[in-house]
C-alpha cells in the first residue's frame, strides 16, 4: 500500500527522444577542408552578393564555379606579393569564374585568389587574402595588380563557410 504523501507509481516510463547532435568540426588537414569549401564557395559568394545588393552600385554578379585548389606555395621572397613568413599559414590558390550583368550587357570574369588560412584553437580562419581580377577568357583584358582582398565579399563568404563548417552545418 502506498503512502498518501508519496507520488503515484507509473506502470510505464515515457522517454523523450534525444536530439543532441555530436559536435562535428572541420577537417584538420587543409587539403580536405579546401576541397570541400571550394565546392560550396560559389553559392556562399552568391548569398554574400545578395545580402549586400542594396549597398553595391552597378550591376549584379554571380559566382559560377571555383577551380580546384593549388597548394604549391609561392616563394617567400617576392617583389610582387607581401608574403607572410609564418610557417603555420597554409597557402591556397584558386580561381573563381563570375558573371556580371550591367544593364543589358554581360561580362564573364576570372578572379585569381591567393588565400592564407591558419588553424587556431577556435578553428580555421583567414589570415590574409590577395586577389587579381581579369576577364574570361583570359587575354581579353589584362589582369589587375594583386590587391588585399581580406575584407572582400569572397573573403566574407569563406569566413561564413568556415563558421558553418565548425558548427557542423556543411557536408564534408
General description of the model:
It is a single chain. With 172 residues, the protein is an alpha+beta fold. The chain has one domain (30-166). It is built from 2 helices and 5 strands. Strands 1-2-3-4-5 form a 5-stranded antiparallel sheet. β2 (90-102) and β3 form a beta hairpin. α1 crosses α2. The protein starts with 29 loop residues before the first helix and ends in a 6-residue tail after the last helix. The model has no long low-confidence stretch (mean pLDDT 82).
Mean pLDDT: 82
The proportion of residues in beta strands is: 25-35%
Structural class, by secondary structure, is alpha+beta
Q: Determine Rg (CA atoms, Å).
A: 24 Å
Number of helices: 2
Count up the domains. 1
The spatial strand order of the largest sheet comes to: 1-2-3-4-5
Terminal CA distance: 59 Å
What about the largest sheet?
Answer: 5 strands, antiparallel
Summarize the amount of helix as a percent range.
10-25%
The beta-strand count equals 5
User: Regions with pLDDT < 50 over 5+ consecutive residues?
Assistant: none
Helix-strand string: HEEEEEH
Shape: globular
Which terms would index this structure?
172 residues, alpha+beta, 5-stranded antiparallel beta sheet
Short précis:
With 172 residues, the chain is an alpha+beta fold. It contains two helices and five strands; from the N terminus they run H-E-E-E-E-E-H.
Amino acid at each position: 500500500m502506498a503512502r498518501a504523501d508519496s507520488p503515484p507509481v507509473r506502470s510505464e516510463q515515457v522517454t523523450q527522444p534525444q536530439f543532441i547532435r555530436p559536435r562535428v568540426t572541420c577537417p584538420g588537414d587543409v587539403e580536405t577542408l579546401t576541397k570541400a569549401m571550394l565546392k560550396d564557395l560559389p553559392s556562399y559568394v552568391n548569398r554574400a552578393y545578395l545580402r549586400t545588393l542594396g549597398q553595391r552600385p552597378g550591376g549584379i554578379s554571380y559566382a559560377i564555379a571555383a577551380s580546384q585548389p593549388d597548394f604549391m606555395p609561392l616563394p617567400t621572397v617576392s617583389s610582387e606579393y607581401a608574403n607572410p613568413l609564418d610557417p603555420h599559414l597554409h597557402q591556397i590558390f584558386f580561381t573563381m569564374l563570375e558573371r556580371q550583368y550591367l544593364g543589358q550587357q554581360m561580362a564573364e570574369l576570372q578572379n585569381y585568389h591567393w588565400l592564407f588560412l591558419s588553424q587556431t584553437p577556435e578553428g580555421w580562419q583567414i589570415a590574409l587574402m590577395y586577389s587579381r581580377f581579369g576577364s574570361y577568357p583570359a587575354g581579353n583584358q589584362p589582369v589587375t595588380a594583386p590587391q588585399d582582398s581580406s575584407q572582400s565579399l569572397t573573403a566574407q563568404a569563406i569566413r561564413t563557410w568556415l563558421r558553418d563548417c565548425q558548427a557542423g552545418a556543411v557536408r564534408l
